[in-house]
Amino acid sequence: MSKTYKAEGIVFRSLKYSETSLILDIYTQEKGLGSYIVSGVRKAKSKMTNVYHPMNIIELVAYKNDGLARIKEASYAVRYDSLDKEVIRSSIGTFFIDLLRSSIKEKEANLPLYSYMRKTLLALDKGESTLHNLPIRMTIELSRFLGFQILNNHSADNRFFDLQTGQFIQDELEHSSVQNADISLQLHKLMEAPSHYMLSRDDKNSLLDLLMDFYSIHIEGFQELRSLPVLRALLS
After folding, report:
1. Tens of pLDDT, residues 168-201
2. Which of 27, 46, 56, 117 is 20 to 30 Å from 100 at the Cα level?
3. CA nearest 186: which of 119, 133, 107?
4. Cα separation of 136 and 41, whole Å?
5. All domains of the chain in start order, with CATH
6. Beta bridge partners of 5
């Protein structure tokens, strides 16, 4: 008989497979990013399909397998109050999961990263009245766990943000990775007061574009986020 293991995990992706099954990408606390299959959940009378919705934090029991693991059973580890009901919170959560899917390449467990993801989803669900800067803040914070964080060393001398080095530099070099003084200043001010600094719609979009370019430089194969156009429309 195959051995099983228990794990808590965050659902990154859920794809329909055959008539009644799902193939899932789940990042678990114990094993990191893995692919799973679960059978019978898309039957007409099944109440389990919603458990496997992306963003959900679940408890699962799976059979040990070196490849595609099979889930024996699963349940909610957390039931959200608003994240799966309020449009703006849900859209920010979808963006965050989209960003994680495109950013995380290693399969190994990373407890600090998992703890950050879990804490971020719970904070988005439970409160934080000011949401307007949150997608930008999430993107900046996540980079710390991926190994290429931004150094906020902006000064009168270092006025230009360099995407390659992740820091502010002295000279506005004629290079596509070096940003102009205005958007560099907006990035610096946001990092100084992440919850309170007010950005215009154009500056929000410019900073999101800047950060997507930053990720593209530092993560091989980073994919354009499908959730980004919806997020821009909702937070405009």
Report:
1. 999 877 778 999 999 999 999 999 988 788 888 8
2. 46
3. 133
4. 35
5. 4-76 (2.40.50.140), 87-234 (1.20.1440.120)
6. 62
